[in-house]
Each structure stands twice: as structure tokens, then as C-alpha cells.
Amino acid sequence: MRHFDLEMNDLKKKLVDMATLVQEMIKFSVDEIVKRDLNLSKEVFNRERETNLTEIIIDDTCLKLIALNQPVGTDLRFITSAMRINSDLERMGDEAVNICEIGEELLKYPDLKPLIDIPKMANAVTVMVKDSIEAFNLSDADLADTVLSKDDEVDELKRIIIKDLLEFMTNTSDQTTLIRAIDLMFIAKSLERLGDHATNIAEDVIFMVHGKDIRHLKSI
Amino acid sequence: MRHFDLEMNDLKKKLVDMATLVQEMIKFSVDEIVKRDLNLSKEVFNRERETNLTEIIIDDTCLKLIALNQPVGTDLRFITSAMRINSDLERMGDEAVNICEIGEELLKYPDLKPLIDIPKMANAVTVMVKDSIEAFNLSDADLADTVLSKDDEVDELKRIIIKDLLEFMTNTSDQTTLIRAIDLMFIAKSLERLGDHATNIAEDVIFMVHGKDIRHLKSI
């Protein structure tokens, strides 16, 4: 195998490892809320430091790969897609941190209601994230397509969650009920954002594989 | 001037033009809420189509610049930063669309309260966006630094807005009051996100100018 190919494989491995970290962060942040276990925060914050460092290393690797090898075509698309995916992954980590921070307020109070739709939404988002990374790892544009098709389901779950919480808010004069409902709304918003990032990654994979930019096809 | 330099200038101009579109989108979306003028939605949606198209053109320009000229050092950093800034700008346009869409629900009802802090937050964010693009255009890392220092102010305004809205929600049994308060919370969240994107752009400018990655300096 050429030295360049080895380096490209190493870049791919770095990104997949970073994605694993980010998936763990999402899992721990949602578990923190669902299992009411504040100890999980530190699992998320520790991984945040690691992802921040990894983001810089991956960007640096990409710049060096371009500067030293002057790739074109598929290879160049792979590297610039990797830079974009890197950035999405880091921001996904930020959303997990965000969920944790909201959780720290939320868990000061008893459960507002049994959490059903939030874990359901988190599961749907987790599948999107997992599949988008798998699609990147295998250069599988079909799998990336399935990620795009799941985004509407996640948006619909968010709509249901917000509608349900509004009911709770309407029938209360208790401020802590309002605070908990608002916290859960912002958590749903963060989950929706995680789905958006997975969608971005899936679009990058399709571009990487086909050299065709499918972003915004509906709106142009 | 070399052909390559002309093309680099053209890339810069394309990004500055895109940033102008996005700034207009932000202005129109906030004006829609503040002036209660739903007609402004179409100004935002028209520009969204244009930014979506421009994003693809800019990415394509960047890939060709790398493939055909094999730049290194500052030039390569400029181009990859341009790709990242391009992506942030497009997502900022999405946030403006988001504000508009929330506005379409919000404006079904009378004003919940005179809007003071939302326009204030929008102004602070607009300055961040303007300065981050100006910093890019002039390769001015000091100006980019001032953008970073404004992010805390925006976050603090968001905190105040949400606290105030919570008061409104506590003293009501009226569901439309709740809906309006939630809408305004999500608008504040979108404005905060716009500030985050401006911060990302400012960090890219500093990296572009100094070749030093300042992201996450506090957390590593």
C-alpha cells in the first residue's frame, strides 16, 4: 500500500474514533436525564476535552495531506469532506454537553413525567448518527440516503414532545413544572440538532462518493 | 496580479457577498418579529435559495482552486477556512429561516410584551456577524478577537430573556401566552446560535491569519 493510502486510512480511523467518542457522549448525556444519574456528566465532559483536541489533530492531518500530496478528484473530496465531518462531530459533542448542562438543572427536581418520547427521539437520532458514520467508513452512499430519510421522523417526534409539554404547562401554576418543561423542550431541540448534524454528515458522504452535491436539491 | 491571486480575490468576494445575503436574512427575520410584518418572510426565503446555491458554488470553487493550483501554507489555510466559513454562513441562513417560521406562529397573536431584549440581543449578534466577516475580508485577527469577547454578552442576554419569559409563564393560565413565550425562547435560542456561528468564523480568521488553532484553548 502506498504511503499516501496508509495516511488516508489513518485519517479515516481518526474520524471513526472521534465519532465513537461523540456517540458515547450522546449516550451518556441522554442516560443522565433518563436514569437521573448526574455522575454521567463527567463522562461527557472528559470526552469533550478529548474531542476538542482530536478536532485540531484531524484538521492538521487534513491540511498536511493536501499540502504534501496534492490530491485531486476523489482523494481531495475525501479530505475536504473529512474536514467538514470533523467539524460536525465536534459540534455534536457540544450538543451532548448542552444536554448535560440542562440535565444538571432538570435533575434538581423530581421527574415531571415518565420520559418516553425523549428516549425514543434520542434512539432515532442515535441510529442516524451511527449510520452516517458507518456510511462514511464504508463509503456507502445508499446507507447515507437512509439517514436523510429519517430526519423527518426526528422532527415529528420533536413536535409531539413540545405539544405534550405545552399541555403540562397549561395546567399548572407551579414554577418548577414550567422550568422542567422548558428544560425538556431545549433537550428536544438539542436532539433535533444532533439529527441535523447526522444529516450533514450523510450529505457529505454522498458528495464524497458520487462527487455530486445533493445539498439543497429541493430548494434550488 | 497572478491568475491564482485573481481567483483567490474572487473567492473572497463570493464569500463576502454571501455574508451580505445572510446578514440581510437575519435583519429581515428579526424585523418580521419586531415590526410584526409577515411580508418580510419572503425576503428571507428568497435569499435562502440564493445562499444554498452560493454555498455549492463556493465549495466547488475551493476544490478547483486546490486541485489546479496545489496551494500550501497561508493560501491553503485561506481556502480551507473559506470552506468552513461558507458552511457556517449557510447554517446562519437556516437560523434566519427558523426565526421566520417561528414568527409565522408568533404573529397569529398580539404582542406578549414590548420586545426590548430580543432586538437588543439581535443587535449584539448582528455586530458579531458583521465584525467576523469584516475580519475575514481584511484578514484582521484583532477584529476577530473582539468577536470572541462578545459571545458572553449574547449568552447573558439570552439568560435574561428566558428568565423574564418564565415570569410571564408563571402568572398565566392562558395557553396562547405560553405559546408566545415558548416561541420567543426559541427565537432567543436561534439568536444565540447565530452568535456561535460568528464565533466559529472569527476563530477561522485567527487560524487563517496566524496559522494557530485557537479553538478550545480553554478546555484542553
Quick structural overview:
Chain A has 220 residues and is mainly alpha-helical.
Description of the molecule:
- The structure is a homodimer of 220-residue chains.
- The first copy, chain A, is mainly alpha-helical.
- Helices cover 84% and strands 0% of the residues of chain A.
- Chain A contains six helices and no strands.
- The first copy, chain A, has helices at 3-34, 40-69, 73-106, 117-138, 141-170, 175-210.
- The longest helix of chain A has 36 residues, at 175-210.
- The N and C termini of chain A lie far apart (42 Å).
- The model of chain A has no long low-confidence stretch (mean pLDDT 94).
- At the A-B interface, helix 2, helix 3, helix 5 and helix 6 of A face helix 2, helix 3, helix 5 and helix 6 of B.
Fraction of residues in H or I helices of chain A: over 70%
Radius of gyration based on Cα positions of chain A = 19 Å
Largest sheet properties of chain A: none
Structural class of chain A: mainly alpha
Percentage of β-strand residues of chain A: under 5%
Oligomeric state of this protein = homodimer
Which outline of chain A best applies? elongated
Q: What are the low-pLDDT stretches of chain A, counting only 5+ consecutive residues below 50?
A: none
H-E string of chain A: HHHHHH
- Counting H and I runs of at least 4 residues, what is the number of helices of chain A? 6
Number of strands of chain A: 0
Largest interface: A-B, 38 and 38 residues
Overall mean pLDDT of chain A: 94
Distance between the termini of chain A: 42 Å
